[in-house]
Amino acid sequence: MRLLISLIALLSIQLSATDNTSTCKRCHPTIYSEFQTSLHKKSSIKEDKIHAAVWNKHPAKPKGNYKCAKCHTPNNTAHEGISCLTCHTITAIEHHPKTNKNIYETKPKTLYSAEKGMEDKKIVYHEERSWFGLVTKTTGSPYHDIDYRNKNFYTGKVCMGCHSHKQNGKGFTVCQTDMKGAKSQESNCITCHMPKVKGSATSIRQSKTHAFHGFAGVSNSAEMLAKYVNIDFKKASKGFSITVENKAPHALLTHPLRVVQLKTTLKRDGKKEALKTETFVKVIGTNNKPSMPWLATQVVKDNMIKAKEKRVISFEKELQRGDEIEIILGYYIVNPKAVKKLGLEKEKGLTSFTVLKHSYFKIP
C-alpha cells in the first residue's frame, strides 16, 4: 500500500511538471502572482487585445493559419499563452534570417534557470536518510530538476528566440531588438525587465530577493523602466533645451505601434502655457504610407530615440526668473492614429497616455 501511494504521488508530480502555471504556484506563490499580470501570460489572442485586433485583420485568419503561435502560443493552443515551462525549458536559440527559433528540452522535469554562484551546478531532487531512516533530508524540488549551467540564462540570449527580429512575407523586418543588449552578464534583457525585487523565489528554499516575473515593460510596471531614462534641462540666452537620454541598449520603444511623447509646460505668474509636444515614433508601411505589418516594405518614419542616445530638443521660449518648467515623458501603447483602424477605441488601458518620467525645473 505504501509503495502504491508513492507511485501515485510520483505520477502526479510527473504530470504536474508538464501542466500549466498553476502547478508552479505551490512552491513559487510570489512569482506566480507576478506572472499573472505579465504580457507573457497574456500573449494569446484570447488575452492580448492588441494582438487579437491585428490578427483579426490578417489575411491568414479565414484559413486558420495562425502564424504567430511560435511565440504567442507556444503550447499549440490559441487559449494559452506563454507559460513558466515555455521559458524555463529553452535549451538553445537557433538563428535564422526570418525569425529565430527556440529549442526546447524534451526530458521531463528538466528546467533551466540562472543564479549567481550556481553557474556550474545542476540540482537533482533526492532524499538522504539517517538515524536508521528516522531523519530525512531532501535536496531540490520534487517537481523538477533545475539546471543552472545554461549560459543563455545569464546573458539574456534566452529572450532572443522571440524578441530578436521578425520578417514578414516580403522579407521586410517588421521589428528588431539589438542583440548587443543580450550579451553582457552585468546588464541585459533580464536585469532590466526582470530586476531583483524583495521576496523569496520559492517556499522550499528562502531567499531575500527574486527576479521580477511580471516582466517590466510598457504594459506592466513601467515605473521600473524609468531609471533607464534621464531628463535634463539647460537654459540658454534665447530659450532652453531639454535632453532625453535613453540608457537602454535598444530604441526607447521597439514596437512599431508605440508612440513616445515629450510634453512641456511653462508655469509663470500662476498661469500655465503648454509648449510644443515632441513625438517620437517608428512607422512601417508601403508606398510611403503606414500599413499593416504583413504588407510593410519600408520604414516610413523613424525618429524614435535610439539606443544610448541623448536627444536634445530646443525651445525658443525666453524664460524669466521664477519660471517653472514641467516636463512629462510618456507613451501610448497603441498609436492614436491606429486605434480606430484596429477597433480599440474603448480600450482605455491601451489608448491612454502613460507617464514614464516626470520632472520639474525652476529658473533661479
What is the SS-derived class? Answer: alpha+beta
Work out the strand percent. Answer: 25-35%
Helix fraction? 10-25%
Based on CA atoms alone, the radius of gyration comes out at 24 Å
Shape: globular
* Strands, total number: 21
Q: Report the biggest beta sheet as strand number plus sense, adding barrel if it closes.
A: 7 strands, antiparallel
Distance from N terminus to C terminus (CA atoms, Å) equals 83 Å
Low-confidence stretches: 1-19
Mean pLDDT: 90
Q: Total helix count?
A: 10
Number of domains: 2
Label this structure with key terms:
single chain; Immunoglobulin-like; seven-stranded antiparallel beta sheet; three-stranded mixed beta sheet; 16% helix; disordered N terminus
Walk me through the structure.
This protein has 364 residues and is α+β, with helices and mostly antiparallel strands. The chain folds into two domains: 2-36 and 83-211, no CATH class; 224-362, Immunoglobulins (Immunoglobulin-like). It is built from ten helices and 21 strands. The chain has helices spanning 2-16, 29-35, 49-56, 69-72, 84-88, 152-155, 160-163, 189-193, 339-342, 348-351, and strands at residues 90-94, 101-104, 110-112, 122-123, 126-130, 135-139, 145-147, 165-167, 173-176, 196-198, 209-211, 229-236, 239-246, 259-268, 271-274, 278-286, 289-290, 298-302, 310-315, 324-332, 353-362. Strands 14, 15, 16, 17, 18, 20 and 21 form a seven-stranded antiparallel β-sheet that branches. Strand 5 (126-130) and strand 6 (135-139) form a beta hairpin. It starts with a helix and ends with a strand. The model is unreliable at 1-19 (pLDDT under 50).
